[in-house]
Amino acid sequence: MIRKPYIKICCIKTKAEAELAIKYGASALGLVSSMPSGPGVVSEDVIKELAAWAPPPVSTFLLTSETEAGKIITQHGRLRTSTIQLVDSVSLTTYKDLRSALPGVKLVQVIHVLDEDAVTDAIRRAAYVDALLLDSGNPNLSVKELGGTGRVHNWNLSQKIREYSQVPIFLAGGINAGNVKNAIKRVRPYGIDLCSSVRINDQLDEVKLIDFFNALNSI
């Protein structure tokens, strides 16, 4: 029997979007701070407001592109989310500094699954975080892509990471109502992360949410 995954809806911009996401089954909200590119960026005032408002069963993820421990700690101190999602690569020392300064905060490291090197990198980093999030960005571009691309990456590599990882795996990148069943069967992730596939004109769309959750619940 396939376990239905935890669902995180990312790129949340307003309380109305947050309420809509939770209504249909989201267990976590992704709140995007300043990024070099990609959708969903909101002001820190909005992130702070939504993090304080979210009902206790719902996790709030701060997506940060900062890579220095001091800057991440300071940013989180302003915003107070339950989880920090590191969308860029950080040093192993940074994880230790974050753990020391923020012992109650969960750490999720994004791995951009470009090639086999991502498998090695994911396994190495899994020892330092609470979960990995496998996405389809490209941090090697002149303007970094750190998420929200809407592209599907090589799920064979994601499956390999999941098999070797000692922490839960979230799967992101182009997952929608049409392919979520296959994604879950192939990778068997702990969680699914959605952004562009449930939005129209950069707004969370109720019909797309209904279609997605109907597809998920049919598994």
Can you walk me through this structure?
With 219 residues, this protein is α/β, with parallel strands linked by helices. The chain has one domain: TIM Barrel. The chain has eight helices and ten strands. An eight-stranded parallel barrel has the order 1-2-3-4-5-6-7-8, surrounded by six helices. Strands 9-10 form a two-stranded antiparallel sheet. Helix 3 runs parallel beside helix 4 and helix 5 runs parallel beside helix 6. The longest helix is centred in the last third of the chain and has 12 residues.
Order of helices and strands: EHEHEHEHEHEHEHEEEH
Output the structural class.
alpha/beta
State the CATH architecture.
Alpha-Beta Barrel
Distance between the termini: 10 Å
Fraction in beta strands? 15-25%
Task: Quickly name the level 1 CATH class.
Answer: Alpha Beta
CATH topology call: TIM Barrel
**Uncertain parts:** none
- Give the strand order of the largest sheet, numbering strands 1, 2, ... along the chain: 1-2-3-4-5-6-7-8
Task: Count the domains.
Answer: 1
Number of helices: 8
Largest sheet: 8 strands, parallel, barrel
CATH superfamily: Aldolase class I
Total strands: the figure is: 10
Topology:
Layout: E1 6-9, H1 15-24, E2 28-32, H2 44-53, E3 59-64, H3 69-79, E4 83-86, H4 92-101, E5 106-112, H5 117-126, E6 131-135, H6 155-164, E7 169-171, H7 180-187, E8 191-194, E9 199-200, E10 203-204, H8 206-217
Parallel strand pairs: 1-2, 1-8, 2-3, 3-4, 4-5, 5-6, 6-7, 7-8
Antiparallel strand pairs: 9-10
